[in-house]
Structures are given as structure tokens and as C-alpha cells.
Amino acid sequence: MKVYVSFWLPEAPLNALREKHDVTINDKEELPSADDLAAQLSDADAFLCVGSRVDRAVLDRVGDRLKIIANWGVGYNNIDADYAAQKGIMVTNTPDVLTETTADMAWALLMAVARRVVEADTYVRAGEFQGFKPFAMLGSDVWGKTLGVVGFGRIGQAVGRRALGFGMKVLYYDAVRLSPEAEREIPATYVDLDTLVKVSDFVSLHVPLAEDTRHLIDAARLSTMKPSAFLVNAARGPVVDEQALLEALRDGTIAGAGLDVFEREPEVTPGLLDLPNVVLTPHTGSGTWETRTNMAHVAVNNILAALDGGTPPNLVNKPATR
Ligand code: DGY
After folding, report:
1. Per residue in 2-49, pLDDT tens?
2. Is residue 190 part of a domain?
3. Which of 80, 89, 164, 170 is the most exposed place for a label (fewest CB within 10 A)?
4. Ligand 1 binding pocket mutation candidate from 91, 100, 233, 286 (most atoms within 8 A of CB)
5. Complete edge-to-edge strand list for the sheet that includes strand 146-150
């Protein structure tokens, strides 16, 4: 059967696909245009979707043979999964394998912005380090502070667990509250979102992008954060109103931010690049060789299961029977 892959992936997972199927890979440096994608999917049985947007317009142009869109990523807001379901197309994602790696990245951003690692590195490289100065480049303590985690699914909990080693108090907010045993095990305390934002020294976002999480952190919420607090976003850019964040960082409403994702990727709101109190990374939350290769294996396994006539392990929608 024909499988289309929209961006380069490591050989090992692709070879597992090639053993059974006819695989076409986009070998360009950029993602295929909507027209190219629709053309490729006109006679494909499966699509391994690496960063492509699959909206209604694309789905209206795919061929009848398309059985599965296997997203390479845990977040699948790039795909209209409900509309795909109406057309009888399965959509899958790649959970679990990237949980710990993404949690590490949230912590990397948290530490980097609190301890001014990027600024300090730039200072040394610029030849400005002329000898130890007791009060130069000072940051904020991390240990012993309060971490507020918004969205306490797999990644949020992994971020929370890491705080134990820093002697931090962990607060969390999620639409679904954990069992008392699970809260004790991390340990973490449930609070409402407004309280979390108000009392935390670090607010780390781990919600998926949905209509009710778009601009969850807006100007009003930012204005209730402590002026000494930091915001970390390794989830999805539009969860934060980026213009409001820029203003909050500029006027000292909050102390700093660590951002791995942006509201209109790859664009970054003008002004953010000029601020020293923000650390910016290019959507590399799950970005290690090990994890990104494992994500490809998971996506491939979903396709193999679907093309074998089974239910893929990571199905996220309920496809109508054709
Ligand atoms: C994910 O897995 O959702 C990452 O953000 C890559 O898209």
C-alpha cells in the first residue's frame, strides 16, 4: 500500500514501513504546500504527517483510499481530527515516548530564564567578563519556590515530579483532578487556575491547544502574576496571548519567560527578540535524537496496525465506518 511521509525521518522507522509498503518521502527542506499534499494524498493509503496542517480544505481533497493520518507528535491541533473522523479516516498521535524529554525542556527553560544562562553566556562571549563581580548577572532562586503547573497530564506531571529534587512546592490546575493517592505521590496540590497564577513563582504550561485553552494566559491573567514570577510555555503557542506577554515582560508585570512555542510559528512577536528576560527555543521540547526517533517508530506502528486492518494503538478520533 502507498504511504506518504511529509518530511525526512530517520531510516530505522522508515525501513520498518518499507518492508511492507511503498513509501514516498518528501525530500525537500520545507513542508509540502497544501496543493502538493493533496496531490500526494489523492492515492495514498496512509499519511505519516510530520508538521503538516491537515484542515478541512486538505481533507476534502484526499482520495478515498486514505485510511490513517499518523501524526508525528503528541499534539495534533494541526489536524482536523473530527472532520477526518466524519470521512472515516483514523488520526493517531505519539504520546508517552516524549513525556520525559519535553518535561526536561520545560525545566531547561525554567532554569535558563531564572538564572539568566543565555544572557550570561552572551556576556562572556562578548568579552565582558573581566573578573568576578559579586553582584553581576544575578538571577532568581529556583529551589524552595512554588511551581504552578497548568495542565497536569503526562508531561505536566513529569514536570511536577522533577520539582521534588529542588525542594519546591507544586501546585497544579487541570480540568480533571488526580486521585488523592496520585497527588500524594508526586506530591502536588490542586488549586484553581486563578489561584495558581497568582501565587506561583514559576508557571509552566502543559495544556493541549483547544478552543478553551486559546489565550488561557492573557493580559488579565498576566496582571495577577507576581512581578517576580516566570512563565514557561513548552505546550502550544496560542495558549498565551503573545502580544500581552510581550507587554508584561517589557513593563515588569512579570520577571521573565521561557518559550519553546509561539502563537504564529515560525513568526515571533516583534519585540520579544529584543528582551533580555526571555529565553526562546524553536519548538524543540521533544527535540532529542532518541525521542524524535522513537516518535517516528510510534507513528510507523500506528500505520502498520491500521494498514493491517487493526485499530492503531494511539487512535485519537472515532472514525465513521465507511
Ligand atoms: C508534539 O509532539 O506535540 C511536539 O510539539 C511536536 O509537534
Report:
1. 999 999 999 999 999 999 999 999 999 999 999 999 999 999 999 999
2. yes
3. 164
4. 286
5. 189-190, 169-173, 146-150, 202-205, 230-233, 256-259, 278-280
Q: Which of 7, 50, 72, 98 to mutate to test the pocket of ligand 1 (most atoms within 8 A of CB)?
A: 98
Q: Which grid cell is 301?
A: 506502528
Q: In what order do the strands lie in the sheet with 68-71?
A: 22-25, 2-5, 46-49, 68-71, 90-92
Report field, pTM of the whole predicted structure over 0.85: yes
Query: Do residues 110 and 245 both lie within one domain?
Result: yes
- Which domain CATH number covers 65? 3.40.50.720
299 CA → ligand 1 middle, Å: 12
- Look up 236 and say whether it is catalytic: yes
Same domain as 211, residue 84: no
Contact at 8 Å (CB) between 303 and 72? no
Nearest Cα to 69, choosing from 58, 61, 81?
81
β-bridge pairing 230-233 and 256-259? parallel
Give 283-312 pLDDT, tens digit per residue.
999 999 999 999 999 999 999 999 999 999
- In the annotation, is 206 catalytic? no
Distance 263 CA to ligand 1 centre (A): 14
Domain range spanning residue 301? 2-96+289-307
Quickly count: other Cβ atoms within 10 Å of residue 104's Cβ.
18
Asked if the structure places residue 135 within a domain, the reply is yes
Element holding 259 (H helix, E strand): strand 256-259
Q: How many domains does the chain have?
A: 2
Residue spans of beta strands (DSSP E) within 20-66: 22-25, 46-49
